[in-house]
Structure formats: C-alpha cells, structure tokens
Write a structure and sequence with these properties.
The chain is mainly β and 148 residues long. 0% of the residues lie in helices and 32% in strands.
Length: 148
C-alpha cells in the first residue's frame, strides 16, 4: 500500500523525496499536466515535467544543474521609436510574460505596454522617452543550463 505525503517538512538532510524514473521510452500511458519524473536515458539524467509550454503537451526538461541562461538586452529610447531589437531570442505573440521589461525606471506590463510578433523585436504600445534606458530580462522559461 502506498503512503501519502501531506504537510510534511523535511527538517534534515537525511530525508529525500523519490520520483518515478525510467528511460525516454517508458512513461505514463496517459500523462497529466504537472507530472514529474527522472529520465535515465542519457548518462547525466534529467528531471522532467509534463506540461503544455510549447503549444502541445510534452515532457520538458527541468534544468539539471548550472545556471539557467537568463539574458539581458539593453536599448535606448529616442521618443519616437516603438520597436527595438534584435533581442538575443525571439518570442511568439502571447509569450510577453516570459520577459521583464523596464523603460527608464518604469516596469512595462506584458501584453499591455509591449508585445512580441514571433521575431526577436519588442514592440512598445507607445514610444519610450528620449534617453530612457530599456532593459529586457528574458529567457525566463528556459530549461537550458550551462554547467557552472
């Protein structure tokens, strides 16, 4: 009989939580969003979750170790221009929440103050003021990591 884990806090390093594991070819017959497993297919292994982050449900790697490759791109407003780029990565429309953008010291609301169109440019709904530092922190949904 299985045991349920409920409201338990592991207070020492002597405890661990196990997750199902197996190769890429072995998995649940009917995976459900949020399920997690450890994939043993390659020599390093990787933790994966099942979810719809790319437009179709699939197993997605969770960064195993190292630093997730979050990127910062910088531009300067001129008071008339609304489109800035190229950014390091491109994003489809509807993926605006995968970036944190400031124009000057003002946080920009995703989908309201700026949008993406499937290229590596950001389009502001109104032109950032002349001399405003535009800071774009993105790739926040990345599961790519570099070994630190």
């Amino acid at each position: 009989m299985g045991r349920m884990l409920k409201n338990t806090v592991f207070k020492t390093a002597g405890h661990a939580l196990g997750v199902p594991n197996g190769t890429s070819s072995v998995g649940p017959d009917h995976a459900v969003n949020g399920q997690t497993r450890f994939n043993t297919t390659n020599s390093q292994g990787k933790l994966e979750f099942y979810g719809n982050i790319t437009g179709s449900p699939s197993w997605n790697a969770i960064a195993r170790e190292g630093n997730v490759l979050i990127v910062k791109d910088s531009f300067t407003g001129n008071g008339t221009q609304t489109m800035f780029g190229p950014m390091t990565y491109s994003y489809a429309s509807g993926r605006e929440a995968q970036a944190l953008i400031h124009a000057g010291t003002v946080y920009q609301i995703p989908g309201t103050n700026y949008s993406f169109f499937g290229n590596n440019y950001v389009n502001f709904s109104s032109a950032p003021s002349n001399g405003a530092a535009i800071t774009i922190i993105h790739n926040l949904a990345s599961t790519i990591s570099s070994i630190a």
